[in-house]
Structure formats: structure tokens, C-alpha cells
Specification:
It is built from 15 helices and 9 strands. It is α+β, with helices and mostly antiparallel strands and 404 residues long. The protein has one domain. Strand 6 and strand 7 form a beta hairpin. The chain is globular. The structure holds iron/sulfur cluster (SF4) (2 copies).
Length: 404
């Protein structure tokens, strides 16, 4: 493990706020590597909670029926206005997933030309500039580890993309040996509404689609190949960790330094020559060992408390690596009952803070695992993770227009 300044590649633009440069730990290999206890195998997307939700009792239909019931009962935070905002946020996502995502696609104007031997260092800098210009909040590059590619299409992504049928094997050509991983920050204030409807998750899917498909178009116009993805084709979290964008947390989500777990991830597979970033350690694994706030607040008890295990609860987890496996179906069943998705674990996490100077200063302690229990105690005492039940963050929450 080495100590190094923030910049990791020549002209590194992974993080737009690099003015906050200070010492951080760079790792020769991702932090999860030391927790591998057995043979890791590629994961079948049909075993994810989302895919199982499609085939095990048609849970999506039930969730949407429950959301309609919430509208009819005028439940605060789940009214027709909230519901409309949720669906509005998804508009671009619905279109792009059916046309662009998880597909190879051809260039639009390129007539067969291709950049000749672009310098990987310069190209990486350019790609990061473009990703940030398109709207990504962080961007990293990694060499593709084929272990992270799903073995087969699952029902959920097959249903939303129409790019393949569930059960079709996924064989990404070896040529796609680089992944550009983009991080999209969800708004801190809006996410505080959860488990009421919070449309921030939904609009992020549209931003993921916009950024990934636009970046793929850019790469194709240079004469190279690119496949834009949100959650499709492979496991985004280990790819983001490999790309130096964060670490795995107890709640099973990516934890970034800048935004904690309050992010979504998109990715572009490509054959463009790019320099991989270096994995980082930001102290999350040791922090989570001493904190279990997410497990305590999870309404479905899907998040494990106590030490890690390398056993799987069921087929929705991978065995052979020490971590805190999620009870995926318990989590999803709670969404179904709630009538909308849930981000309580993200809301209550002490790392979920606005990326302000004050919180960046406190983070210096958290990253170094200093006073961890004290930080967690004061975080709860000060009410940082509490739900925001006010419906007045926007004028459109006027109750006079929620009655049907
Ligand atoms: S999303 Fe909600 S139900 Fe699922 S793990 Fe997080 S807190 Fe628990
Ligand atoms: S709430 Fe605590 S234990 Fe859970 S992911 Fe956040 S830091 Fe880790």
C-alpha cells in the first residue's frame, strides 16, 4: 500500500474537485482482493433480486398496484404528484434502454476512419474530460475483469432493454478490454424523502443512459467500439472499485469518497486504448466493521450486522469472498410492500453527506478510522439520517392538487 497525491494518471481528471488534494491510499490491487477465500465465479443475472422479482410472483406488478393504492389513499409522499415525478424522471431512461443501452451500435457520421494509435495517456485524459462534460460526477477507467460479466441475461434487464431474451449467454468479445466507469451523484436533499417516493433515483437512470450512450457515440465516431450500459451486462460495483472510484460497503453498495453511497453507476465497454486507474482505499471496510447503522435501520433486515461471512444466503449472493451479503429478496419484497423503491440504507449512512468543505474535513477522520464510533454516535444524535417528511421542497407538493 502506498501513499500518493490525488492525481493518479497524468493529467488525471477523474475527480473534478481535485483542488481538495491531500494524501490518500493507492492500492496495488482492489481492497476486496484480501477478502477472497475461494474461487469466484461469474454471476448469472437471472439470480439477481431484480430478475427474481420478475419471475417469482410477478412482484413488479404487485409493487405498481401498491403504488396506485398509495395514490388513491393520498398517502403523503406517495401522491399522484410524487408518482408523476418518479415516472417523469425515468423518461429518457425508458427510451435509451430500448434503443441504445447494452448494444454495440454503429457510428453516425464516421465513414470508416479511425484514430491511428492514439496515445493511451492522452486519450484517457480526453475521455475523462468528455465524460465530465456530459455530466458524470466522477469517472475512472479499468481493465475489464471478465469475472464481472454476467453469464446470462436476466429477466429484469431483458424486459427493460429488449436487447435479448432472459437466459441468453453473454459473451463479450475479448476486444472490449477496457471499461469507463461513471459515477452520478443523487441529490442529498431529495433522497432524504425515502422511503416516500424520491424521484432522484429515477432521474439518475436517465442521466446514466444519457452519459453512457453519448460517450459511446463519441468513441464510435473516433473509429472504436463501445457498448453503453447502466446495470446491464455486468456487475457495476466491482468494476467501479477496480477503476479506483470507491470501496464496497456493508450495505453492499459502492461507497465513494465524495458522495458516500448516494450514487448510481454507468459504464462503457470499449476497445479504445486507455490507461487504467489505480484502486483506492478510503477506509470504508474498517469503518463499516465498527458501524452498522444501515443494518439497524433497514426495515426488512436485509443488511447483515456483525462480522463478514464468505457464505451466501441464497443464489442471489456470490460465495468465496468475505463481505456482508445482502438478503436480496427480503430487500425487494419490502420495496413491493412500500409501493416504490427504498434508499433508507443510503439515507442513514454516516458517509451520505453533501460534499462540502465541512464534511470533507470530518471525512479526514472517517477515512483514517479515527473516532469511528464517536462519529457514528454524533451523526445519529444530530439527526443527519432522519427522513425528511416535509413535502414542501417544491411548490408542486401543494396538497390542494393531490386529490383525485
Ligand atoms: S433498500 Fe431499504 S430494504 Fe433494501 S437494504 Fe436498503 S434499507 Fe433495506
Ligand atoms: S451505514 Fe455504516 S455500516 Fe452501513 S454502509 Fe454506511 S458506514 Fe458502512
Amino acid at each position: 500500500m502506498g501513499l500518493s497525491l490525488w492525481a493518479r494518471n497524468p493529467g488525471d481528471l477523474s475527480r473534478p474537485e481535485s483542488a481538495q488534494e491531500y494524501l490518500m491510499r493507492l492500492l496495488p490491487e482492489p481492497s476486496y482482493k484480501k477478502f477472497i477465500t475461494g474461487e469466484l465465479k461469474r454471476f448469472d443475472e437471472r439470480d439477481t433480486g431484480f430478475s427474481r422479482g420478475v419471475v417469482e410472483g410477478n412482484k413488479y406488478t404487485v409493487m405498481h398496484e401498491n403504488s396506485v393504492r398509495n395514490i388513491e389513499k393520498l398517502i403523503p409522499g406517495k401522491t399522484i404528484l410524487d408518482h408523476a415525478l418518479w415516472v417523469a424522471g425515468r423518461t429518457v431512461d425508458y427510451i435509451l434502454r430500448k434503443k441504445e443501452m447494452a448494444r454495440e451500435g454503429a457510428p453516425i457520421y464516421n465513414r470508416g476512419y479511425r484514430l491511428e494509435n492514439p496515445d493511451p495517456s492522452a486519450m484517457t485524459k480526453i475521455i475523462k474530460e468528455v465524460a465530465l462534460w456530459l455530466g458524470a460526477d466522477l469517472v475512472g477507467v479499468t481493465k475489464l475483469n471478465p469475472l464481472w460479466i454476467y453469464t446470462h441475461w436476466g429477466h429484469h434487464n431483458a424486459m427493460y432493454t429488449s436487447a435479448a431474451e432472459p437466459g441468453i449467454p453473454i459473451n463479450l468479445p475479448e476486444e472490449y478490454d477496457r471499461v469507463i466507469v461513471m459515477i452520478h451523484e443523487m441529490d442529498h436533499e431529495r433522497l432524504r424523502r425515502t422511503p416516500a417516493v424520491e424521484s432522484e433515483t429515477d432521474i439518475m437512470y436517465s442521466k446514466m443512459g444519457w452519459c453512457a450512450s453519448s460517450l459511446a457515440t463519441y468513441i464510435r465516431e473516433l473509429g472504436f467500439r463501445a457498448i453503453p450500459c447502466g446495470n446491464e451486462l455486468g456487475l457495476s460495483i466491482p468494476m467501479a472499485i477496480d477503476a479506483g472510484l470507491g470501496e464496497l460497503s456493508r450495505m453492499g453498495l459502492l461507497m465513494t469518497r465524495e458522495f458516500g453511497p448516494r450514487v448510481r453507476i454507468s459504464k462503457v465497454f470499449t476497445n479504445l486504448p486507455l490507461l487504467p486507474d489505480t484502486p483506492v482505499e478510503i477506509g470504508i471496510q474498517r469503518f463499516c466493521e465498527k458501524c452498522s447503522v444501515c443494518a439497524e435501520h433497514c426495515p426488512s433486515r436485509a443488511i447483515m450486522s456483525g462480522p463478514r461471512t464468505d457464505k451466501a444466503w441464497d443464489r442471489s449472493n456470490s460465495a468465496g469472498i468475505l463481505k456482508w451479503p445482502l438478503k436480496a429478496m427480503d430487500c425487494f419484497n419490502w420495496w413491493v410492500a412500500n409501493g416504490t423503491h427504498c434508499s433508507i440504507c443510503i439515507r442513514v449512512c454516516p458517509w451520505n453527506k453533501p460534499n462540502t468543505l465541512f464534511h470533507r474535513s470530518i471525512r479526514l477522520l472517517a477515512e483514517r478510522n479515527l473516532f469511528t464510533k464517536g462519529l457514528v454516535f454524533f451523526d445519529e444524535l444530530l439527526g443527519y439520517g432522519k427522513q425528511d417528511k416535509r413535502n414542501d421542497y417544491s411548490a408542486i407538493q401543494d396538497p390542494s392538487v393531490t386529490k383525485l
